Amino acid sequence: MPGQVRADKNPDVFVDALAGLPGWRGAVVGEDLGPGADLDQRIRDTDAPVTTLYRYLSVDEFTALVAAADVIAAPYSVASQSGVLAVAAALGVPRAVTPVGGLVELATAVARDTTAAALREAILKAAADGAGQRDTTETAKLYLDEYERAVARARHTEGAAG
Question: Is the entire prediction scored with pTM above 0.70?
């Protein structure tokens, strides 16, 4: 679960889902915008196999983290779209989401509701349906190359306008 750590993204639902998935490990990585301390306490209370790292991720780190995942989970309670899911889709990483806003369009598997049990089922379905060959190294490189070209174009445009 990479990206900004916010309450509306339901990281607690993610932790509860992972607590019921023997053999799985999860990570919540990104800037903590509020729920970090409570989330860490929930992880301790449930003994969920979830690691947290609260800090800004560079584009390279973020892309590598997404590419390395077996499944990206987005158990959000409110959403219009998700940049995290768009990156995961571009990298061919399976995506498990709650049935909220525009998340469904980018999903490999959609939970029946926003509960931990439903997310757990969606994670397993995404992993099973999305399992297959992925050349994440080449895909990640293409994504990074595209991003770097976009940044260079933006800098060139700013320089030309200034």
Answer: yes
Instruction: List phi, psi (to 5°) of 98.
Output: -90, 160
34 pLDDT above the threshold of 60: yes
- 136, two tokens: 């994440």
Burial of 75: CB neighbours in 10 Å, binned 0-12, 13-18, 19+: buried
User: Cα 128 to chain center, whole Å?
Assistant: 17
DSSP single-letter state for residue 22: T
Residues 42 and 137: their CA atoms lie apart, in Å, by 34
For domain 7-161, which CATH number applies: 3.40.1010.10, 1.10.3120.10, 1.10.1090.10, 3.40.50.2000? 3.40.50.2000
| Residue-range domain boundaries for the chain | 7-161
The token pair that represents 115 in the structure block: 């509960």
